[in-house]
Structures are given as structure tokens and as C-alpha cells.
Amino acid sequence: MSTLSAFSDQLPDGSLREMNFYDSSFFKDPSKRLPTPSEVKALSEDAHTSPHPKPIIFKDSDLFVKFGPCVTTAEAQCLWMIKRVFGDDVPVPEVFGWRVDDEKNHVFIYMELIQGRTLLDRWNELTDLDQNSLRNDLIQIIKALRRLEQDPLQQYIGSISHQKAQDYVFQSYPEAGPFSTVKEFHDWFSSLPQQRLPPSKKFKDPYRDSLPDDEDIKFTHADLHRSNIMVSSSKPARILAIVDWEQAGWYPSYWEYCKARYTCWSEDEWRWEWIDKFLCPRLPELEVFVEYILSIGSV
């Protein structure tokens, strides 16, 4: 097993407003510099109107800039860690640095441009050979990721930097951790549907006992959707990178499966024929997960 303990003390300081990873491939040319937030925003059509502005691409530098009010330095820390722990076993974009805009406190993450298409875009043109190749890639990637372990003496549920859980289903709940145990997380998660009820209206939760408090804690992408899987145009198709790690962190080991199943159309081939091939099926937990998520209105 790989442990994060060797990297915890080395994680880039997420509180810094500017970070350059000078050992990255971008800075092999000493004359190159990352564009400023102002330069990035000047190329954006929705920087001032959307909470999730469209990323800006600098093709001449193979540079992809993700930015906005919902972007966090935790995602950059995550990309940095994964590249160093796994190398090519868990393919992710190389991260070059970040900036925090002084004007609105928005985060800008500068990373490698992945020259490929999403699995969602290529879905209807995949051959049987492509599908088998991509399934095998996913199996190996998840197997590698699941080998990552926390320090047994410092276990928790939350972001990579020991902050609150970044999953979008909790975006309306600023008190989302970190939690020191799975039980503590489950007690909080199961309380959310009744959180705003007066004491006289609260009732015995019929689902809480179905949440397994003895669950292992695993590092989790938390959004394994086809739009976040970049694939090649080669024959057979191969996975180039898993992207969009903004929700990633330490969660109970069933969380990856539940999020992957929940975030796709119920009749989708991806849901019924693919996910169970590369993630361990957790159907009882999925049933409870869906009940809670629907109860709190997260979609």
C-alpha cells in the first residue's frame, strides 16, 4: 500500500495566493511565465456571469486554466500529489501552479492541456475493442488509486488538505467536516434531512443503521462521470487522463460507487453495464445514499 503520510508534510501550502511548480515541464523553458488572472479573464466570455466560467486554453503553451469562485487550491494540491504518488498509473493533468485573484479571491489553476476528447463525446463511436481497452484502463486506474492509504494515526474524512469535504452534494453545508471517524461523518450526513426541523418534528431515521460505520476510508475522485475521462483517438482507445478533481478527498469506500451511479441517467448503458465493471458494486449503500441526497435536495 502507498501511504499519503510521506506526502502530507510536502503538500504545497494551499493558503498561498501564488504558487509556481518550477520542477514541472512548463518551466523547462526559463523564459516562460504563467498568464496573470487578468490576462485569463480578458479572454473569457463568462468570467463575470457564471459561477463556473469556461476554462481558458492557451494552445501555443499547451496550457489549460481552470478558474472561478468554485475552484479551490485543494484541487491543485490533489493533482500535485497524485502525479507524485502514482506517476502514470493514475493519469492526471500535470499542474503548473495557481493564483488567487486579488480582486474577487477567485482561484486560477494552471495545468497541462490534455489533447483528447471526453469519453462522453466519443461514447457512440466506440467499437468493442475500444470498450474493452477503456474498461481495462479504468480497472487498473481504480486499483492503483485504492492502494492509497491514510496514516492509521491520522485518519479523517475531508479534503486532501484536512479541510471540509468538497463534494458538491454538501455545497450548501459549510460545516461539512473534516470528520475524525466514519461514524462521525455518518451521524452528520444522516442528520441533514432533518437539520432544519424543530425538535418536536424530528423522527427516528429509518436509514441510519444501514450506513456502515466500520467502512474503510479511501481516496475518492467523487465524480467519475464520462465527461471527466479523457480518451485518445487511437485504436484501440486509451484513457489519457482523469480530470476535474475538485470534489476529491477521503470518503467511505462506498462513496465513489454511489456518486458514479447517482450522477448519470438512470437508463444509461454507462450506469448499468460499465460502472460495476471497474468499481465494486455497493447497492445497499447506494439505496441509502440516494434517499439522503434526494431528501436534502442535492442534484
What would your notes on this structure say?
The protein starts with a strand and ends with a helix. It has helices spanning 5-8, 37-42, 73-86, 119-122, 128-145, 182-191, 255-262, 269-278, 283-295, and strands at 2-3, 18-20, 56-58, 63-68, 95-100, 107-112, 117-118, 148-149, 217-220, 229-231, 239-242, 249-252. The protein folds into two domains: 2-112, Phosphorylase Kinase, domain 1 (2-Layer Sandwich), CATH 3.30.200; 116-299, Aminoglycoside 3'-phosphotransferase, Chain: A, domain 2, CATH 3.90.1200. The model has no long low-confidence stretch (mean pLDDT 93). The strands form four sheets. The chain has a five-stranded antiparallel sheet with strand order 2-5-6-4-3. The protein has a three-stranded antiparallel sheet with strand order 7-10-11. It is globular, with a radius of gyration of 20 Å. It is α+β, with helices and mostly antiparallel strands. Strand 5 (95-100) and strand 6 form a beta hairpin. It holds the Pfam family APH.
Topology:
Elements (H helix, E strand, L loop, with lengths): L1 E2 L1 H4 L9 E3 L16 H6 L13 E3 L4 E6 L4 H14 L8 E6 L6 E6 L4 E2 H4 L5 H18 L2 E2 L32 H10 L25 E4 L8 E3 L7 E4 L6 E4 L2 H8 L6 H10 L4 H13 L4
Helix pairs in contact: 7-9
Protein name: Aminoglycoside phosphotransferase domain-containing protein
Pfam families: APH (PF01636)
